[in-house]
Amino acid sequence: MTFDSTSTASDVIAGHDLSGVNAVVTGGAAGLGAETARALASAGARVTLAVRDTARGETAARRIAAETGNPRVEHTELDLASLASVRACAARLLDRGEPLHLLVNNAGVMATPLTFTADGFESQFGINHIGHFALTTALYPVLRAADGARVVVLSSRAHRRGDVDFDDPNYRHRPYDPWESYGQSKSANALFARGLTDRWADAGVTANAVQPGMIMTDLQRHIPRDELIELGWADADGNIITPPGWKTVEQGAATPVWAAVAPELGGIGGRYLDNCAIAEPWTSGGDPPHGHYLPRILDPDLADRLWTLSEKLIAA
């Protein structure tokens, strides 16, 4: 079935039976993560919300279970800004001794002031990429055991705003720009999906990067009021608005859910997905339009370089 920019997560999940499927959704307490989790749970999957705020996670799990009639919705603590928390979360999931069929790396931050994680990583690079890299690689044994696991990595059209700076990814020696940093982290997300597939596809584990679209969620919470107004994301009084052409949360979750369940993506990874379709590289100059991406974010050599750097960073 063909979907488009107006499709919702409910549209995409319709007709799928995920009984026996184990799924983990990071940042599943609100926004796109919660809607993605709700869709997967509605099809019968066991869904674990990996969340920083466990109180919100418990509330979200109860709500999703009630809405879907699926009691197999739970939560576990995960703070992507702390490698100790990431490793503890991975250990709990590994201790279950069950295969992990779906891992949706959804959580993230956007355009934050310059801050650093507990381990010294610039926060956007550290949370959006390094934390997810550490979690995913730690979960390799249970992903491999699923015999066809899929990892869904949320990227963004904002990848155009910044390349990965391999010499100074944490802004220790270069001027900090919050949007360039966000772009770097979203480029890293896509390169991670490519690198994972290159390494793990033979073991039955693939990953795709997803552009969910522009959606008003908590992701915008760090942007200053004046900038929100300038961007047209708030009115003159600073009240948040939804600009024309933006998606609803239900529509934004459609492509992540499509990446998780679409039959045509079985065994297919290392792609960039947009509007429930495989996007095309953009080589005509300027910013890529919807449905396209800058080729550098799926470059195999850059993906390999990022993987090597990430391994060194989490081992330090």
UniProtKB/TrEMBL annotation:
Keyword hit for Oxidoreductase: yes
Keywords: Oxidoreductase
SUPFAM superfamilies: NAD(P)-binding Rossmann-fold domains
InterPro entries: NAD(P)-bd_dom_sf, SDR_fam
Membrane-spanning ranges: none
UniProt family annotation: Belongs to the short-chain dehydrogenases/reductases (SDR) family.
Protein name as catalogued: SDR family NAD(P)-dependent oxidoreductase
Organism of origin: Actinomadura gamaensis
